[in-house]
Design brief:
Bound molecules: adenosine-5'-triphosphate, magnesium ion
CATH class of the largest domain in chain B: Alpha Beta
CATH topology of the largest domain in chain B: Rossmann fold
Shape of chain B: elongated
Strand content of chain C: 15-25%
Number of strands of chain C: 15
Number of domains of chain B: 2
CATH superfamily of the largest domain in chain B: P-loop containing nucleotide triphosphate hydrolases
Number of helices of chain B: 8
Oligomer: heteropentamer
Number of strands of chain B: 21
Chains: A mainly alpha (324), B alpha+beta (382), C alpha/beta (397), D mainly alpha (339)
Structural class of chain C: alpha/beta
Largest interface: A-D, 104 and 102 residues
Order of helices and strands of chain B: EEEHEEEHHHEHEHEEHHEEEEEEEEEEE
Radius of gyration of chain C: 21 Å
């Protein structure tokens, strides 16, 4: 009965207020990705920026007249002194470097940092991590929830313990270990440390616990091996949980800034998307917020698309309705 | 097609003893029904045979070989679960196909998309589809093959569960109340199909049911379980007509068997409610219990053995159960009779009852059947 | 192409220096066609540069040439990661002629040996929004901190509630060291940190004076920069390296830089900020090492060095570049000239000795923060506390 | 009767153990890869950290000395230690309940909608998906004392007499100093990140903002498993209000999810780091008010290159979080019912 | 205690039409059983009455007032779900107590720990406990009160579900196959308890079952549903003896009614398998179907109406169903007879059958009952 009720309006109202708070930074992010550096730093320009032509600072620096340029330009400006010529040339150079802020921001994002390459790396790395995680976590989660074996509690305890271990604390030993086997600056270095996900094991175990034992037994009677049960029975019934895990894993590693920064010290072509941000970071010497926000916007878009696709499955849901 | 032998199977859930030493030898191709009150351990026993639960004691042999160390999948059994246990994410057709696919396709052939391309997969797949369709037709669920379990009615789900078990030919079938949610017509139909299958495959069946008609009509033998033990395992008519134990007699047969207090005098002569019967025991002076099936009682006008008043009547259409409160006793007895008689048997009517002493079953105070009866004692003076 | 030599090179602050190296590269290619410079992924900032190098040293993955913060060279020298440049310098016939400032070279001299060639150098300067100052009636720039405080009072009187930002939080206790050098005292002498000296007390008190006298808010550097660019902040004291950026983002007001104020009169010295090129090559191949030296030398001298000033707010490390190549540059860019004028004051930006050097930096940072947030009121107590804590962290052997 | 129909003879030969033993070996086999990887990737470094915590190792040094309990002693004798604990606990105690509660609330509200659910889901999940580093920078810009949108907004509200009167409750006759908003209008908008009274709450807020969407997704996944039949039963039993049905069906059914969500949120809260690093590095915020444990570990172990002390804090951290998680897990797990 | 009136209830699941206009008026205190084949929409109808599912059309009144806009909780009904739907986290006692607690305690009193301290809560709580115990005793699950549903057998779970419905006294009870997993003995017992409850409360019952004995013995009326319609709703004996529709006749009664092809000649005289019967229709020349309950057939030696051969016999203990293959027809008929007769009726035995024409039910080719019969036509020449 989808009637138009006050409670429905209240619910929408609450959700909309929440959405406004949640969205505010994104609006700002998007807005900054449209503005010129001056507008950002000075907090002007409204939502979309004035979109007045601005001078691309790097381009201007690159084209700034040098001594030689002044010499050659002397013929063009016969009776001016050097400094006037320089001013004129600088103005010319600046004029050649004029761009709209929005163009500047997004162009910088893709040019100064090879963002497309980074996005591709992101896809490769997150997909490999997720697949390997599932491959390892699912059987373990199944064993921990549905198989009785001596030491199960201990293994589960270990999983819980591993959940507690912060990556920041073990980053250095891990880095050194990878260096020892010569894996730094490779895709493997980005993937290997994550292939066992205590989080994934724990999450899937919690959901497997809710699958009725009879279903597992039925599968055993049908001739499935324990491994087959994991992939053919547990996995499909736990699709929502798996999606939650997929989202978690992909989001975490897509956005991971810390680990790639540690482990990829040489090769820029191994960078993952967030490292594109550092291209525009200069600490106290001035961050280029516009391109940075443009990069951040670009980085998050694939995730939003993926999430929208994935959430259909959430709506369907697998209710365990084959049971009495 | 194999024998199933249980020796001293015991099972505890923590402190509660659910099975207390089950011994049962099932011959190859036999159809054994397990009946017993709710909670007596039928499902547990089935699960132990299937290898899904480990027994706390005892051993199991299938086809003569011990299977205690064999996993469920390797025991080559089919099972219908009381709770259906359908795969919620698979359609009806896929649910039924699972046991075939698992056993007839190899790993490569089972792969989701590419599997069909593997040599031999296509033919096997078609074979499986055909078998699934056949099973579904038998169970009248061929219209539903594309539905998911969540979209089915209770009885339809149960039939899918049944289909999944019947689609292949294992060493033995274990069926746990497979027809409980079906209507009478379909139940009779399915019963016939199962009986047919049993004949055709000559497979061993272990069948849990609480439906006596099922148990009586389908079984080679019925095993009556109570509080974790098998009280009697015998052919249906033996169980009905010749129970070893009062509990069996009471459990089997609906309406319930009538039990009347009886006793034997010093000579062993048995009397019920003060009336001597032409029956005697070798030992005398016992408190006894005399049990009579409702159909063993008949109405009579002259020299009734028992007298009473009609207190309740249930008309099932083809027969009427009449409850009669006996004079001089607390018991009521139930009489099975024709609907045509109902006019005579209005509430409150006084009736006289008699019975053939040979159809009376005598049990001692503990419920043990007393078989050493001396009969034809008409000449013994009343 | 067999004789092409590739050397690995890394630098921090890519958004700042990318364009500099882009500008340098064609000239270098022309001069050394057989040397290929492989630019690795850049460091974020000096801390990151230092940590990464240490990690790479342990994992055996060092670049050949790296740019390191001036105060981060010491640790690399101590751990044997940075290599002495003396052999190369010795081989150069006319090294002096290339115009290396003696003062600047000393920034990278440890134990009498040169370990790095400074590349971009900065000094603390004052940033002023002349429009705001003038509207409050201030016409002359302050030259001492007392005058700064007075200016604050004037500004506040005319309605400014946020008159100043003094960039105390800047990395490596730069501003603390600035006030020490101002008084002519080195923050570190040998194995001792001069926290327990009267000059240190004076330093702390001066900071407190600025904070209290100006009611300075506890902004971050970034926030202060934005506020200054937006025309909300009349005075800001920070590194000259921000000038370039400020010029591009500032609102339409009259932006002037002025000499860093002293305690009484002109400062006696100021610490140099910026970075130096350090050789960290682990290669045994003399050709590689020589190529690395060529690169190192190229970027720190002549046209190469000139690009630093042209593209950033930093000064080039090289007299030749400053005096000759860029002579008229500073006329065009007066805001960038202030630091150059202060060049004679150039002093070491010192690292604290021992493994705990960075921890000591943090202790002093925390102390300064307590002044800024108003936590610490009694400077003598604070000095006492800091001295003890530092003493505790000093190497004892 | 054919032999093939019997339990296969191959199976017989393979039958080395009874079902229990077999299950046990399957269990071990299936957890073995995870176990082995956990031991090498996670546990080994932790053991290394344990070892290092008794040394004065510093990266790049050729050797190290055993220093016994010195590192631990140092941690406990420094005043920053209490600041570290108080910042950590403030953060955990604020963020865990709020982000779990908001996650659950959002999930329930969204689930009850027939239309628009997809949009709300995506919106609430946005913060989880966005790169935290970038978003922290955005927050930093928004929280800028003079040009940030937040303070500009506050100033705007102060400038309008109506909103100023409303929000500062001065229409109730309260003096401007009596309310937070009143003080903002008279004394100027807060410094947010530079003010010790605000910094930790800002970090908490960002933590909640960033994290509750994930809890929402987990709860949504959990909600798909709640049997509709049970809602029907509850309705028949007279559970008239939403709340009653929630208590009777939803909440118990969400038990496993809640165990998970609380455990994870708790652990993640203890591991809060990125925001602090991005906003308050170096130092850990005004007066070290945001000096959370993970930041301390990172500062000591990585930034300051004192691996011994960093390792010691790591060990303490682990002991600490382990005890708390065990207690928490023990409590929740006991109350939870699976199927 | 209320009337329940359904008018034109329809229900579609996407395209499939599950209910096609159900009209049913149930009087106050009536006990109506819904029977019908699996998947015919019984559960769906019950859920619509309960307010758990919205109808695609039609309206419902309870106690004379329309309830279409009333939510399930406000309709004051009790329901047993076919799938039990027990709260998995609550013990048996708590499960049964839920409806009482929900309705008799206010929100404060229901609070977990402090609730007991609220005034009045303690007495109410004790009262509830007593009622729960009573219900559990009736259903013989008082031993299990502290268990959780996961630890119960199928039948035990079902009894808990029943207990939860029976523990309070609503306007009407809706029971969806509440006894399907119980053994015969317990089933009879529980049936009696439900009948007793019905008498005591004089409450309205709507009872879905596939067990004909239940339907026949408990109901005031039986509604036979098929493919989304009610074919007939009448008193049990009427349904059994006087069905309107061949489908009803076939559905009710086990073993199934025997149907033989018949026809009427031009004069209307009916003959079956070529034998004229002393029955006639007003209109002639029709293809007809003649239906005979198994008990309407009897064995005879002289002038048998039908002849055939015994092909199968099922012994239920108290009676035997004998399948006889008729000479000159494909049909088999089933005969209900005494176990004592079985000796005569060995497989293959030739038997002659007869029946009382008055007990034959005549249906036209479409299955509609033909009631306008002319009888006692013995004088019509054969
Ligand atoms: N996991 C368990 N823990 C404790 N007791 C259990 C468990 N499972 C079953 N039982 C108990 O064991 C006994 C036997 O259960 P079982 O399921 O075998 O009964 P059943 O004969 O199949 O009954 P029904 O006919 O009702 O299905 C029951 O009393 C039940 O309560
Ligand atoms: N969610 C659904 N989607 C589609 N079809 C459904 C759905 N639920 C039930 N049906 C169909 O509606 C029909 C009626 O279902 P219902 O559960 O009412 O049957 P029933 O009469 O109770 O049967 P049973 O005796 O087997 O329980 C069935 O054919 C079933 O397949
Ligand atoms: Mg059972
Ligand atoms: Mg149903």
């Amino acid at each position: 009965m989808t009637r138009f009720s006050p409670s429905l309006i209240i619910r929408h109202f609450i959700l909309m207020i929440g959405a406004a708070v949640v969205l505010a930074p994104f609006v700002v992010m998007l807005s900054y990705s449209l503005k010129s550096p001056a507008e950002i730093e000075r907090g002007t320009g409204g939502l979309f920026g004035a979109q007045e032509m601005m001078v691309d600072p790097k381009c201007a620096l690159r084209n700034a007249p040098r001594r030689g340029d002044i010499e050659t330009a002397r013929t063009r400006f016969p009776d001016r002194d050097d400094s006037t010529i320089q001013t004129l040339l600088t103005e010319e150079a600046n004029a050649a470097c004029e761009v709209r802020p929005v163009v500047f921001n997004y162009r910088s994002a893709f040019q100064d940092a090879p963002l497309l390459r980074y996005l591709l790396n992101g896809v490769i790395v997150t997909a490999s991590i997720f697949l390997l995680q599932v491959l390892i976590a699912l059987p373990a989660a199944y064993a921990l929830s549905k198989l009785k074996f001596w030491g199960r509690e201990a293994v589960f305890g270990l999983v819980l313990f591993c959940l507690l271990i912060p990556v920041h604390a073990i980053a250095l030993p891990l880095y050194l270990g990878l260096a020892k086997i010569g894996l730094t600056n490779t895709y493997a270095a980005l993937v290997v440390p994550w292939i066992v996900s205590a989080f994934g094991i724990f999450l899937m175990r919690q959901f497997f616990m809710t699958v009725p034992d009879d279903l597992v037994d039925a599968a055993r009677m049908d001739g499935m091996t324990e491994f087959a049960i994991v992939w053919r029975v547990m996995l499909p019934t736990a699709v929502p949980a798996l999606l939650a895990f997929a989202i978690f894993s992909v989001v975490a590693h897509w956005n991971d800034y810390f680990w790639p920064r540690i482990v990829v010290t040489g090769d820029r072509s191994l960078f993952t998307p967030p490292l594109g941000l550092r291209e525009f970071q200069a600490g106290a010497d001035g961050n280029l917020y516009g391109p940075m926000m443009a990069t951040a916007t670009v980085i998050v878009i694939p995730l939003i698309v993926a999430f929208m696709l994935a959430q259909r499955r959430f709506i369907e849901g697998i209710t365990l309705s084959g049971m009495k | 097609m194999a024998t199933v032998t249980l020796r001293g199977i015991r099972k505890n859930f923590k402190e509660t003893e659910v099975l207390r030493g089950i011994d049962l030898a099932i011959a190859d191709g036999e159809f054994v029904s397990l009946v017993g009150p709710s909670g007596c351990g039928k499902s547990t026993l089935l699960r132990i045979i299937a290898g899904l639960e480990s027994a706390s004691g005892g051993s199991i042999e299938i086809g003569g070989a011990p299977v205690d160390r064999l996993r469920a999948a390797d025991r080559n059994l089919s099972m219908v679960f009381q709770s259906y246990a359908l795969y919620p994410h698979l359609t009806v057709a896929e649910n039924i196909a699972v046991p075939l696919r698992m056993r007839q396709l190899n790993t490569a052939q089972r792969l989701p998309l590419i599997g069909r391309a593997v040599p031999g997969a296509r033919e096997r797949g078609r074979e499986i589809d055909a078998r699934v369709l056949e099973a579904a037709k038998t169970l009248e669920i061929d219209q539903l093959l594309d539905r998911k379990p969540g979209q089915l009615s209770g009885g339809q789900r149960q039939r899918v569960a049944l289909g999944r078990a019947l689609v292949r030919a294992p060493a033995a079938f274990l069926l746990d109340e497979p027809l409980s949610n079906l209507d009478a017509k379909l139940r009779v139909h399915t019963r016939t199909e199962i009986a047919e299958l049993h004949r055709r495959l000559a497979a061993t069946f272990i069948y849990v049911t609480h439906d006596q008609v099922e148990a009586m009509t389908m079984s080679s033998r019925i095993a009556v379980m109570m509080s974790g033990e098998i009280l009697q395992c015998d052919a249906p008519t033996r169980i009905y007509e010749d129970p070893n134990d009062l509990r069996v007699a009471e459990f089997i047969g609906s309406p319930r068997i009538n039990v009347l207090p009886a006793e034997s005098d010093s000579s062993g002569r048995i009397s019920v409610l003060g009336k001597g019967l032409p029956l005697a025991l070798h030992e005398g002076r016992q408190t006894l219990q005399l049990a009579l099936r409702p159909e063993a009682l008949s109405l009579t006008h002259h020299t009734p053995l028992l007298q009473g008043r009609v207190v309740h009547a249930e008309n099932l259409g083809h027969e009427v159960f009449v409850q009669i409160s006996l004079d001089g006793a607390e018991q009521r007895v139930v009489l099975r009779t024709d609907p045509a008689m109902q006019a005579q048997l209005h509430l409150g009517a006084k009736v006289g009852l008699t019975f053939d002493p040979n159809r009376a079953l005598i049990f001692d105070a503990k419920g043990q059947r007393q078989r050493n009866l001396l009969r034809a004692l008409q000449e013994i003076p009343a | 192409q067999d004789d092409t030599i590739t050397i690995d090179f890394v630098y921090p602050y890519s958004s700042l220096f990318d364009v500099t190296y882009e500008a340098i590269m064609p000239a270098f290619k022309a001069a050394h066609p057989n040397i290929n410079i492989n630019i690795r992924a850049s460091y974020e900032e000096y801390e990151d540069a230092s940590n990464t190098i240490l990690r790479e040293a342990v994992s055996g993955n060092l670049p050949d040439v790296t740019m390191q913060g001036l105060n981060r060279q010491q640790i690399l020298v101590d751990r044997g990661i940075a290599q002495s440049l003396e052999p190369f310098i010795a081989k150069e016939a006319d090294f002096q002629k290339d115009g290396y400032h003696e003062a600047m070279l000393s920034l990278s001299t440890f134990g009498g040996e040169v370990y790095g060639l400074p590349f971009s150098v900065s000094l603390p300067v004052g940033y002023y929004n002349m429009d705001l100052l003038k509207s409050a009636g201030v016409e002359t720039l302050p030259t001492t901190w007392d005058e700064v405080v007075q200016t604050c009072q004037t500004l506040k009187a005319s309605g400014s509630d946020n008159p100043i930002y003094w960039d105390w939080a800047i990395t490596g206790n730069w501003f603390f060291q600035a006030l020490m050098w101002t008084q002519g005292v080195a923050p570190v002498e040998g194995n001792h940190i001069n926290m327990d000296t009267p000059e240190a007390l004076k330093t702390l008190e001066t900071i407190k004076k600025i904070v209290d006298g100006c009611e300075m808010k506890n902004l971050s550097s970034d926030e202060a920069n934005s506020a200054f660019a937006a025309g909300d902040l009349p005075m800001m004291f920070t590194s000259t390296s921000n000038v370039g950026r400020m010029l591009t983002i500032k609102d339409d007001f009259d932006f002037v830089t002025g000499a860093y104020p002293g305690i009484d009169g002109q400062p006696a010295g100021l610490p140099a900020g910026g970075n130096a090129a350090v050789m960290t090559s682990t290669s045994d191949d003399p050709a590689v090492r020589d190529a690395a030296w060529q690169w190192l030398k190229f970027i720190t001298s002549g046209e190469g060095a000139a690009e630093v000033a042209r593209t950033t707010g930093y000064m080039p490390p090289n007299r030749a570049a400053n005096d000759l190549i860029l002579a008229d540059f500073y006329e065009q860019n007066p805001q960038k000239a202030t630091a150059v004028k202060q060049l004679p004051l150039l002093r070491d930006w010192q690292a604290y000795p021992g493994d705990n050097g960075l921890a000591i930096t943090q202790v002093i940072y925390d102390g300064l923060e307590r002044i800024v947030t108003g936590d610490a009121q009694d400077m003598e107590d604070l000095q006492q506390e800091l001295s003890e804590e530092i003493e505790d962290l000093m190497p004892h052997s | 009767m054919s032999v093939a129909d019997l339990p296969s003879s191959a199976a017989m030969r393979r039958a080395t153990a009874d079902p229990d033993r077999r299950q046990a070996s399957a269990g071990w086999l299936m957890s073995a890869p995870a176990l082995a990887l956990m031991l090498t990737i996670l546990i080994a470094p932790v053991l290394l950290a344990l070892m290092l915590s008794f040394t004065d190792y510093s990266l790049g040094n050729p050797s190290f000395n055993w220093v016994g309990w010195d590192n631990y002693e140092r941690i406990f004798t420094r005043s920053t230690y209490t600041k570290m604990l108080s910042a950590t606990f403030t953060y955990v105690i604020t963020v865990v309940p709020l982000s779990v509660g908001l996650g659950l609330g959002a999930a329930l509200l969204i689930q009850s909608l027939t239309r628009g659910a997809a949009i709300y889901k995506a919106v609430y999940f946005l913060p989880v998906m966005a790169t935290l580093l970038a978003m922290t920078i955005v927050w930093q810009l928004m929280l800028h004392p003079s040009i940030g949108v937040i303070n500009r907004g506050l100033e705007g509200l102060c400038a309008m007499p109506f909103t100023r009167g409303l929000l500062s409750l001065s229409f109730l006759g309260l003096s401007p100093e009596a309310t937070w908003f009143g003080r903002v209008c008279t004394e100027g908008a807060p410094l947010w990140l530079g003010d010790r009274d605000y910094a930790i709450w800002v970090v908490c807020f960002i933590g909640i903002w960033q994290g509750f969407g994930f809890n929402m997704v987990l709860y949504l996944a959990g909600l798909t498993g709640v049997s509709r039949e049970l809602y029907a039963a509850a309705e028949m039993d007279g559970a008239r209000s939403y709340w009653e049905r929630f208590r009777l069906v939803t909440w118990p059914a969400l038990g496993p999810t809640t165990v998970f969500v609380v455990t994870i949120t708790c652990i993640r809260a203890f591991q809060a780091f990125d925001t602090v690093e991005a906003l308050f590095s170096p130092g850990g915020g005004p007066g070290k008010s945001v000096y959370v444990m993970m930041f301390a570990i990172y500062e000591k172990g990585v930034t300051q290159n004192l691996m011994g002390i960093g390792a010691a804090i790591t060990v303490l951290f682990l002991i600490f979080v382990m005890i708390l998680t065990l207690i928490q897990h023990w409590i929740t797990e006991r109350k939870v019912h699976y199927t």
